[in-house]
Task: inverse folding
């Protein structure tokens, strides 16, 4: 009975590790890390992101689409702006540990 319990814990741990690995892989692109480090403290619109990160709007939009499809960020429309927020609790917890000095402010 204890052995079955331990196997169940190990299987759950493996599944969680696989899930974390997938999330980290999605976030692992340098531009995505920059995006996440900018929006970690609140909500930001696309225009603010591409202006601040000095990247073309299509580049930022493509990376945001990948993050959104993976469930890491969500967006909502306010007036004529699309606003992005980090919604994945795992990513919310780890992003503050990634020190990117030139992108640590809004």
Result:
């Amino acid at each position: 009975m204890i052995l079955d319990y331990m196997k169940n814990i190990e299987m759950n741990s493996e599944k969680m590790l696989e899930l974390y690995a997938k999330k980290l892989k999605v976030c692992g692109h340098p531009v995505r890390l920059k995006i996440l480090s900018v929006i970690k403290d609140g909500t930001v619109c696309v225009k603010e992101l591409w202006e601040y990160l000095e990247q073309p709007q299509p580049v930022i939009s493509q990376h945001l689409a990948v993050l959104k499809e993976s469930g890491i960020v969500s967006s909502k429309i306010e007036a004529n702006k699309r606003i992005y927020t980090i919604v994945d609790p795992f990513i919310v917890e780890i992003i503050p540990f990634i020190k990117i000095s030139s992108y640590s402010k809004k």
About this structure: Helices lie at 2-27, 30-39, 46-53, 57-69, 89-94.
